[in-house]
């Protein structure tokens, strides 16, 4: 597999992370939390293909669907919180839309990287060099998450208070996409 093919694969798998992070960036996120989020997304985009490689098609398909539904639900919750906060500006701490703590970061990162599970299985079947491919996927997906957060923050500053509402709608749409 060529380097361009690996980068394109990473971009295809990083689209969910980009879209969801764009929505989160609209609402605002601290730099520290953003760095943790980007690192977590990148790590999951390495771990999920590795898990898919080992789990095989049957277990991977079952786990992938369950994780996809949980991921979609998580994005719905985050999106709904953002929309609610945009409508009711007096909510204390309304700018923190991810679930608090490390568990929230892990759940979010797993939800946007679950499609990489089945890719890992396919890579194992075709006997590509696993380590280089999954590291490239993780790097590209992490960069896409960072780009989404940065772009969301920038556009959010221009749009102002409506950015929270727009970000919430984006997350709801990403959640719907995960269900299909």
From TrEMBL:
Keywords: Cell membrane, Ion transport, Manganese, Membrane, Transmembrane, Transmembrane helix, Transport. The chain crosses the membrane at residues 6-27, 34-56, 62-84, 96-122, 128-151, 163-179. GO terms for cellular component: plasma membrane. It comes from the Bacteria. It is found in: Cell membrane. One of its GO terms (molecular function) is manganese ion transmembrane transporter activity. It is a multi-pass membrane protein. PANTHER family: MANGANESE EFFLUX PUMP MNTP-RELATED. Belongs to the MntP (TC 9.B.29) family. Probably functions as a manganese efflux pump. This is Putative manganese efflux pump MntP. The gene is mntP.
């Amino acid at each position: 597999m060529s380097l361009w093919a690996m980068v394109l694969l990473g971009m295809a798998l990083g689209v969910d992370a980009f879209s969801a992070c764009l929505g989160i960036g609209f609402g605002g996120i601290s730099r520290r939390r953003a760095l943790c989020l980007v690192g977590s997304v990148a790590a999951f985009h390495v771990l999920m293909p590795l898990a898919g490689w080992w789990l095989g098609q049957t277990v991977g398909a079952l786990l992938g669907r369950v994780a996809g539904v949980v991921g979609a639900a998580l994005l719905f919750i985050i999106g709904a919180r953002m929309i609610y906060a945009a409508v009711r500006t007096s909510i204390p701490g309304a700018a923190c839309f991810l679930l608090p703590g490390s568990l929230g970061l892990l759940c979010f990162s797993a939800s946007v990287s679950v499609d990489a599970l089945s890719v890992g299985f396919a890579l194992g079947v075709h006997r590509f060099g696993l380590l280089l491919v999954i590291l490239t996927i993780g790097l590209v997906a992490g960069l896409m998450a960072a780009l989404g957060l940065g772009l969301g923050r920038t556009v959010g500053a221009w749009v102002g208070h409506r950015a929270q509402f727009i970000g919430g709608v984006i997350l709801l749409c990403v959640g719907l996409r995960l269900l299909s």
